[in-house]
Write a structure and sequence with these properties.
α7 links the parallel β5 and β6. It contains 12 helices and 13 strands. By secondary structure, the chain is of the alpha/beta class. The termini are far apart.
Length: about 325
C-alpha cells in the first residue's frame, strides 16, 4: 500500500468516514483516490471543493446489482474502503428493508465482483458495535459472540460474517473494522451527538429554546472520527487481513454528553433538555464499550483525542458556523 500510483476506491466518500480517509490519503500523496458518489452535484458541496479537486469521482447507485461489475474494470482499485451505507439505527427500526438492501446486500455484491474480477484487491468493511447488540459481555472485543438487536445491526453482522467467509474460502484480503461510535463535525445532524452540539450552539445564539432527547442514561463508547479513519487505513495496510475493534474503551452517557456540550458554552443543560419517549429505542444495547487492545498491540493504533476534546471541537464548529 506504500507504492505510488496505487488506486484506492472509497464508496461513501461524502460521508464522515469517507471524507476523513480520503483527506488523509490525499495528504499523504501516495495514491490516487477515487470516490463513488450517487449525485456529483449534491455531494461535491458535502465533500468541499478543496478535497473534491484532488480526487477522481465516479457515479453509481448501490441498489444497482451490476454496479461493481462495471466499476472494477474501469477503476482498477488496489484497495477499497466500502463505507457507503444507510447507517441510522432508528431509521432501520422504522423501515428495515432499505437498510438491509443497501447496508447488507450491496457489500456482498462487491465481494463477488472483487472475487471474480479483481481478487488481488484489498477490501475493508466498517462493522459496528451494533453487531454485539444485547450482549452481556463488557467490554466487547473481537471474540465476543454476535447478538444484533436492530435491523442495522443485522445488516452489519451479515457483512461482517460474509467478509470472514470470503476471506476463508477464497483467500481474499478482506478485513473488518469493528467501529464503536465515532463523531466529528461531519456527523449527520440526525445523530444524537450532532443533535446535541447543534442545539447547544443554537440555544447559545438565541435561535432555539429547548432540546428533546430520548434516554439520557443511554451510554456509548464515543471517539473522534479522524482517529478511527487512521485506524481503518492501518487495518487495510496491515500485512494480513483481519478484524479489529476500534474504540476508546470508555463509555459516557447521553447525559454526560449534554453536560459537556452545554458546559462548553457556559450553559446549564438541565434548563434546556427535555425527554421525549418517542426518541427512546425499544432495544437498547447493553453497555456498549469496546476493548481496542488488539488494535493497539498489533497495529499500534490508539485514539488520540479525548471525549472532552471531541465534544469541544464539535460544539465550537457548530457555534462558529452559526455566527
Amino acid at each position: 500500500m506504500s507504492d505510488k500510483k496505487k488506486t484506492v476506491l472509497i464508496t461513501g466518500i461524502s460521508g464522515q468516514d469517507g471524507y476523513y480517509i480520503a483527506s488523509q490519503l490525499v495528504a499523504a500523496g501516495e495514491c490516487r483516490v477515487v470516490g463513488l458518489v450517487m449525485n456529483s452535484e449534491l455531494e461535491r458541496s458535502l465533500v468541499g471543493e478543496e478535497l473534491w479537486s484532488q480526487i477522481d469521482v465516479v457515479e453509481g447507485e448501490l441498489s444497482d446489482s451490476e454496479l461493481f461489475n462495471r466499476l472494477l474494470p474501469e477503476v482498477k482499485p488496489d484497495a477499497i474502503f466500502h463505507l457507503a451505507a444507510l447507517s441510522h439505527v432508528g431509521q432501520s427500526i422504522k423501515d428495515p428493508m432499505p437498510t438491509m438492501q443497501i447496508t447488507g446486500f450491496a457489500p456482498i455484491r462487491l465481494l463477488e465482483a472483487v472475487r471474480t474480477q479483481s481478487p488481488q484487491t484489498r477490501v475493508l468493511f466498517p462493522a459496528s458495535a451494533e453487531i454485539f447488540g444485547r450482549t452481556q459481555i463488557s467490554p466487547q472485543d473481537e471474540s465476543v459472540p454476535l447478538n444484533p438487536c436492530t435491523p442495522y445491526g443485522v445488516a452489519k453482522t451479515l457483512v461482517y460474517s460474509a467478509a470472514r467467509c470470503w476471506r476463508l474460502n477464497y483467500g481474499m484480503f478482506v478485513s473488518n473494522a469493528i467501529l464503536f461510535n465515532h463523531e466529528s463535525p461531519r456527523r449527520g445532524e440526525n445523530f444524537v451527538t450532532r443533535k446535541i452540539t447543534l442545539a447547544a450552539a443554537r440555544i447559545a445564539r438565541g435561535m432555539q429554546k429547548e432540546l428533546f432527547l430520548g434516554n439520557l442514561d443511554s451510554r456509548r463508547d464515543w471517539g473522534w472520527a479522524p482517529d478511527y479513519a487512521e485506524g481503518m487505513r492501518m487495518i487495510i495496510e496491515h500485512d494480513t487481513p483481519d478484524d479489529f475493534v476500534l474504540a476508546t474503551g470508555i463509555s459516557h452517557s447521553v447525559r454526560e454528553f449534554c453536560a459537556a456540550a452545554f458546559g462548553y458554552l457556559d450553559l446549564d443543560w438541565e434548563k434546556y433538555v427535555r425527554v421525549d419517549p418517542a426518541f427512546v429505542r425499544p432495544n437498547e444495547p447493553v453497555q456498549p464499550v469496546g476493548n481496542p487492545a488488539r488494535a493497539r498491540s498489533v497495529l499500534g493504533w490508539s485514539n488520540k483525542t479525548s471525549f472532552e476534546q471531541m465534544v469541544e471541537q464539535m460544539v465550537r464548529f457548530d457555534y462558529e458556523r452559526l455566527g
